[in-house]
Amino acid sequence: MRGTHRILTTIVALLALQLGSLVAPAYACGCGAMIPTKDQRIGVDREESAVRWDGRTETVVMRFNVHGDAEHAAWIMPVPSRADVTLGDPALFDALDRLTEPEQRDRFHFWPREGDWPFDLDHGDGAGAPPPGAGGVGVVGRERLGPFDVARLTATDPDALGDWLRTNGFELPERLTGALQPYVERRWEYVAVRLAPQQKDAVLQGELTPLRITFASPELVYPMRLSRLAKTSQSLGLYVLAEHRMEPRSPIGGDAPEVTFAGRIEPEGPVAGLAGQQPVQLTVLEQEFPHPERIDDDHHLRAVADTPYRRVEYTDRLLTVGGGIPVWLLTVGGGLLLAALATLLAVRAARRRPTAGPGVRSAA
Question: Residues 335-348: what's their mean pLDDT?
Fold first, then answer.
């Protein structure tokens, strides 16, 4: 009987503790390697681009998050035709993030896990063309756009292009010359960008102003070949706005591209400034390049079936009823109570059962 009472007391205490906790106050619970000047360092945490293609014209809006101690850095983006370059809308990527954020769902479990009662005893705070001039390089234009010194170039000789860049303040590596050869052979043009903070002695840190580059293209292409010059792993995020869902033809030396969102949207605000007012298909691609030196081509994207997709993020929650009482506690507690009650009834029944008196024998 003492064991039975002890079990009943424990169950009642657990239930009372859980119910009490419900009313008690809660405890506060791309495009080529970005190269700095000599003796300085810069790292690109992530390269993000929003790409709009209508079948004839392609617009790329690029955003970089950088860190390091460099005061100047440069990169070069090959383009298949003459490019126009302007500053992009800083609000564009936040708007795209809101459109494509994962669907939130709850997923319930029966038995308590770490962080569930009664294992949540620690209530502390938890802690993205003119003909070439002399020397084989033609300068289409050169503009200052915010923190960017932008040169639009043509070239028929990769060595001459490399020499022009270095002579004009674009500190790029010697090995760039060989990487440019395929673009020179295809008669592409170039957007060379030198990043320099407008404040004296300021360093390149954080999120840079987006740069918007527009050019004619019969196919959707995202230049990536020069990223093979990078010395550390690269991460690419692409928001693609087109008539249909678009995906890369191959991984071009990186991990398999992952689609994290696909669906038709109604452009508004900054997104409409890029895509126009008509409904458009938005595809979001994520890709990792653990070994950039293996990148062997640009991304050529093709239309695929317009199958919608949205990533789902689950929040695991303990299954509860009645304002927060764990179902496991009620189930286990109820079972133990029933077992204790059955034991108690059996003991009482045994006590009431008549026994034969002394000297009395039951009939044979």
Answer: 74
| Long-range CB contacts (within 8 A, 24+) of 171-175 | 171/35, 171/36, 171/37, 171/38, 171/72, 171/73, 171/74, 172/35, 172/74, 172/75, 172/76, 173/33, 173/35, 173/229, 175/229
User: Across all residues in the chain, what is the average pLDDT?
Assistant: 77
Total-model pTM: 0.70
Q: Are strands 42-53 and 57-68 parallel, antiparallel or unpaired?
A: antiparallel
- CB 128 within 8 Å of CB 63: yes
Distance CA 53, CA 217 (A): 8
Q: Distance between alpha carbon 35 and the CA centroid of its chain, in Å?
A: 24
Q: What is the DSSP string of 60-83?
A: EEEEEEEEES-S-EEEEEEESS-E
Alpha carbon distance 119, 122 (integer Å):
8
Q: From the CB of residue 83, how many other CB atoms can be counted at a distance below 10 Å?
A: 23
Residue pair 214/87 in contact (Cβ under 8 Å)? The answer is no
- Tell me the C-alpha distance between 241 and 218, whole Å: 15
Q: Name the token pair of 303.
A: 């239309």
Sequence-distant (≥ 6) Cβ neighbours of residue 154 within 8 angstroms: 129, 130, 131, 132, 137, 138, 140, 189, 190
Higher local confidence (pLDDT), 28 or 17: 17
* Cα 330 from Cα 321, distance rounded (Å): 9
The two counts, helices (H) then strands (E), for the chain are: 6, 21
Nearest to 299 by CA among 56, 29, 58, 36: 58
- Tokens for 113? 């896990």
**What are the angstrom distances between the C-alpha of 305 and each of 187, 282, 283, 300, 308?**
33, 13, 12, 17, 9
77: which 2 tokens? 């983006």
CB 70 within 8 A of CB 208: no
Least confident piece of the model among 101-110, 114-123, 214-223: 114-123
Q: How distant, in Å, are the alpha carbons of 242, 273, 281, 313 from that of 278?
A: 11, 11, 10, 29
Q: Which of 116, 119, 140 is nearest to 129 (CA)?
A: 140
Rounded Cα gap, residues 264 and 306, in angstroms: 8
